[in-house]
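QA checklist item 7 of 12: single-chain prediction sanity check.
[x] sequence parsed
[x] length recorded as 169
[x] structure emitted
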Amino acid sequence: MTENPNIPLGRPAISSRGVRWALIASLAVNLGVAGMALGAFLHGGPGGRADMVRDLGFGPFDQALRPQDRATLRAALRAKSGDLRASRAEVAQDAMAIVAALRLQPFDSAALDAALTAQQGHLTARMKLGGDALRVFLTGLSQQDRLDFASRLERHLLHGPDAPPPPQN
């Protein structure tokens, strides 16, 4: 039997467009997350206010927190996380590692995978730290404060961040 010289040996049979687009979509999402984190770091977030609570990914919970709640969480996070600047620098380094992997000639998908995996691990660790702090904070609230928080969170979820405050009794 003769070998066909047009079929490269040692290459995987899976090279469909679907896999390529899935990798591109995954990269876009990861770069988007890194870009948002880096943008928040560089610009201090909305209104120029650098906020550790928002930075650790509380999403809609951030809108339901009162200013004194944010201060409490910020203090707890500082005590547990140490230097947040180092953590933010890690986010920037992760993004730059992805950029470097994209520029490799010849392209090395394993290097890109490693950079994306490292970024995901760092972001997951940051979100876990924030989630743990939020859990401790919420379980330490009085019943009335928990109910008030739940109402603020629900209002934000149903009506968005610009929801009017509830009527005062």
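[x] summary fact logged: Residues 22-159 form one domain.
[ ] second reviewer sign-off
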